[in-house]
Amino acid sequence: MTKQEFIQEAALRLIGARPSEPMCEIHRLAKNLADLIYPDDEEVSSDPVRPIPTRSDLPKDDISYLLQEAYRVEHQMAREYERKFKERHGYFPFKREGIAARIQKRFIVERISTVGDLLERGRTGILKTPGFGKKSIELIDQALLNLYCIETW
Question: What's the pTM?
Protein backbone atom coordinates (compact mmCIF):
# COMPACT_ATOMS: atom_id res chain seq x y z
CA MET A 1 0.00 0.00 0.00
CA THR A 2 1.41 3.36 -0.97
CA LYS A 3 1.37 6.37 1.31
CA GLN A 4 -1.31 8.01 -0.85
CA GLU A 5 -3.53 4.91 -0.66
CA PHE A 6 -3.03 4.82 3.10
CA ILE A 7 -4.11 8.47 3.42
CA GLN A 8 -7.23 7.76 1.35
CA GLU A 9 -8.16 4.76 3.48
CA ALA A 10 -7.45 6.58 6.74
CA ALA A 11 -9.53 9.57 5.60
CA LEU A 12 -12.49 7.33 4.74
CA ARG A 13 -12.33 5.66 8.14
CA LEU A 14 -12.00 9.00 9.92
CA ILE A 15 -15.04 10.35 8.06
CA GLY A 16 -17.03 7.37 9.35
CA ALA A 17 -15.74 7.83 12.88
CA ARG A 18 -16.06 11.63 12.93
CA PRO A 19 -18.82 12.65 10.48
CA SER A 20 -19.10 16.20 11.83
CA GLU A 21 -15.35 16.91 11.57
CA PRO A 22 -14.34 19.42 8.86
CA MET A 23 -12.74 17.81 5.81
CA CYS A 24 -9.55 19.81 6.21
CA GLU A 25 -9.17 18.36 9.74
CA ILE A 26 -9.84 14.81 8.45
CA HIS A 27 -7.14 15.28 5.81
CA ARG A 28 -4.69 16.68 8.36
CA LEU A 29 -5.24 13.74 10.74
CA ALA A 30 -4.91 11.15 7.94
CA LYS A 31 -1.74 12.79 6.62
CA ASN A 32 -0.18 13.00 10.09
CA LEU A 33 -0.90 9.32 10.67
CA ALA A 34 0.62 8.44 7.28
CA ASP A 35 3.72 10.50 8.13
CA LEU A 36 4.18 8.37 11.25
CA ILE A 37 3.86 5.11 9.33
CA TYR A 38 5.68 6.22 6.17
CA PRO A 39 8.55 8.32 7.51
CA ASP A 40 10.10 8.98 4.09
CA ASP A 41 9.95 12.46 2.60
CA GLU A 42 7.48 11.51 -0.12
CA GLU A 43 5.18 14.48 -0.69
CA VAL A 44 1.51 13.69 -0.90
CA SER A 45 -1.09 15.91 -2.50
CA SER A 46 -4.43 16.73 -0.93
CA ASP A 47 -7.27 14.23 -0.78
CA PRO A 48 -7.67 13.01 -4.38
CA VAL A 49 -11.44 12.68 -4.07
CA ARG A 50 -11.84 16.48 -3.69
CA PRO A 51 -8.56 18.34 -3.46
CA ILE A 52 -8.47 21.55 -1.47
CA PRO A 53 -8.45 24.24 -4.14
CA THR A 54 -5.93 27.02 -4.21
CA ARG A 55 -7.21 30.58 -4.01
CA SER A 56 -6.88 30.92 -7.80
CA ASP A 57 -9.22 27.92 -8.26
CA LEU A 58 -11.94 29.28 -6.00
CA PRO A 59 -13.58 31.68 -8.46
CA LYS A 60 -14.39 28.67 -10.65
CA ASP A 61 -16.30 26.82 -7.91
CA ASP A 62 -20.04 27.28 -8.17
CA ILE A 63 -21.66 28.71 -5.04
CA SER A 64 -24.17 25.82 -4.96
CA TYR A 65 -21.48 23.53 -3.51
CA LEU A 66 -21.00 25.97 -0.63
CA LEU A 67 -24.77 26.23 -0.16
CA GLN A 68 -25.11 22.44 0.08
CA GLU A 69 -22.56 22.46 2.89
CA ALA A 70 -24.38 25.38 4.56
CA TYR A 71 -27.64 23.37 4.49
CA ARG A 72 -25.87 20.37 6.01
CA VAL A 73 -24.23 22.44 8.75
CA GLU A 74 -27.50 24.22 9.54
CA HIS A 75 -29.36 20.93 9.81
CA GLN A 76 -26.70 19.58 12.15
CA MET A 77 -26.81 22.75 14.30
CA ALA A 78 -30.63 22.65 14.43
CA ARG A 79 -30.64 19.01 15.59
CA GLU A 80 -28.16 19.87 18.35
CA TYR A 81 -30.22 22.91 19.45
CA GLU A 82 -33.41 20.85 19.45
CA ARG A 83 -31.76 18.08 21.48
CA LYS A 84 -30.54 20.53 24.14
CA PHE A 85 -33.93 22.27 24.29
CA LYS A 86 -35.75 18.95 24.74
CA GLU A 87 -33.34 17.95 27.53
CA ARG A 88 -34.12 21.17 29.40
CA HIS A 89 -37.84 21.52 28.72
CA GLY A 90 -39.05 18.08 27.61
CA TYR A 91 -40.47 19.29 24.28
CA PHE A 92 -39.56 21.39 21.24
CA PRO A 93 -42.36 23.70 20.05
CA PHE A 94 -40.56 25.61 17.29
CA LYS A 95 -40.42 25.16 13.56
CA ARG A 96 -37.18 26.80 12.46
CA GLU A 97 -36.95 28.57 9.11
CA GLY A 98 -33.77 27.83 7.22
CA ILE A 99 -31.00 30.39 7.33
CA ALA A 100 -29.31 28.62 4.43
CA ALA A 101 -32.41 29.18 2.27
CA ARG A 102 -32.28 32.91 3.03
CA ILE A 103 -28.57 32.95 2.20
CA GLN A 104 -29.30 31.27 -1.13
CA LYS A 105 -31.96 33.89 -1.99
CA ARG A 106 -29.58 36.73 -1.06
CA PHE A 107 -26.82 35.21 -3.20
CA ILE A 108 -29.20 35.28 -6.17
CA VAL A 109 -30.25 38.89 -5.53
CA GLU A 110 -26.63 40.00 -4.98
CA ARG A 111 -25.45 38.03 -8.04
CA ILE A 112 -22.97 35.92 -6.10
CA SER A 113 -22.61 32.83 -8.27
CA THR A 114 -19.13 31.54 -7.38
CA VAL A 115 -17.08 31.14 -4.25
CA GLY A 116 -14.69 33.67 -5.76
CA ASP A 117 -17.49 36.26 -5.93
CA LEU A 118 -18.15 35.69 -2.25
CA LEU A 119 -14.47 35.94 -1.30
CA GLU A 120 -14.03 39.12 -3.35
CA ARG A 121 -16.71 40.84 -1.30
CA GLY A 122 -15.17 39.59 1.91
CA ARG A 123 -16.75 39.00 5.30
CA THR A 124 -17.24 42.69 6.11
CA GLY A 125 -18.65 43.43 2.65
CA ILE A 126 -21.21 40.65 3.02
CA LEU A 127 -22.14 41.83 6.52
CA LYS A 128 -22.93 45.29 5.09
CA THR A 129 -25.25 43.71 2.51
CA PRO A 130 -28.95 43.74 3.49
CA GLY A 131 -30.21 40.30 4.49
CA PHE A 132 -26.93 38.96 5.85
CA GLY A 133 -26.68 38.89 9.61
CA LYS A 134 -24.56 37.25 12.29
CA LYS A 135 -26.16 33.80 11.90
CA SER A 136 -25.76 33.88 8.12
CA ILE A 137 -22.09 34.77 8.44
CA GLU A 138 -21.52 32.03 11.03
CA LEU A 139 -23.06 29.49 8.66
CA ILE A 140 -20.98 30.71 5.70
CA ASP A 141 -17.85 30.71 7.91
CA GLN A 142 -18.43 27.07 8.88
CA ALA A 143 -19.13 25.98 5.29
CA LEU A 144 -15.96 27.71 4.03
CA LEU A 145 -13.95 26.11 6.82
CA ASN A 146 -15.35 22.63 6.15
CA LEU A 147 -14.89 22.75 2.38
CA TYR A 148 -11.84 24.93 1.80
CA CYS A 149 -10.16 25.31 5.22
CA ILE A 150 -10.70 29.08 4.91
CA GLU A 151 -10.91 30.68 8.35
CA THR A 152 -10.68 34.35 7.43
CA TRP A 153 -12.11 35.88 4.31
Answer: 0.60
